Amino acid sequence: MSSMLRSDGDLSLVMAEGDSRNQQCPGPNEDNIVAIDSDGDLLIQIHGQHEEPTLYYQVSSTVLQKSSPYFDRLLDPKKFSEGVAFETLLKGLRDSYPDVTMAPAAALPVIHISDVGQLPMRYPSKNVITHFFDILHDTNSFWAMAGSLPNHIALLAILADRFDATKPVLDHVTDQGWIHAYKEIKENKKDSNQSSLRSKETLWRQRIFAGVILGVQDWVMSYSRLLIDAGSERWRTASDAELNVDDDAPWWYLPRGLEGEMVLLVPSKLSRLTRARGVGISPRVDPRDY
Fold first, then answer.
1. How much is the pLDDT for 276?
2. CA 107 to CA 49: how far, in whole Å?
């Protein structure tokens, strides 16, 4: 029977697999373990979105601590009780097996993480979470892209921000040549009539969002200019119902005050657009709200 470290948000506590809060969640088995590192000493349990199953990602605690300050703090026995508990569980495995790598994966300590960041509900989480942990472990595993390249990078940025791992994700994006790919998409598609304005805006916003989180100024500046020049559907729509976008996607509410700054940069253009359409500026885009 596995022991579990349950992390609800940033708080964790040791619980047995049979705890009443875990009755509806299946324990780790060969069907629901995703082996990021087959020699890993830790399982991270994450509930799937919609009807996706609960999965356990087998990872190396050492690798996570080196690549993510979040996991470094969580698993450090000198800083948090969770780290003490994790070390205690590992000691038990070392007493039972010549080497922890010889223990069956289902017997490893488990951390349940209930908050993986603001991943939009419409996108399956397994592919991007698997890729994120692969990045931290610097593996060359095949991974399935979650939608388009801009969408996938934006989803990776959400996880990188949540788990304080922007550097390895940015390094990976750079090594893959995706910064150049972003520029090619911008140059080839910005004047295309093949996609709707909304589709274009979604792509622009995903690139801006990823640029803000990962610290790529070129993405932020280039696509902010396109968005300001075209005008955002969000800025001139009176209600969320009229906008009809994925409102849980964080790129529709650009972080760190950027949304409000862009609204302030285009007051005259925005005013002309709203008068022409007979639509008032929604109070929810008041720059003071950002």
1. 42
2. 25
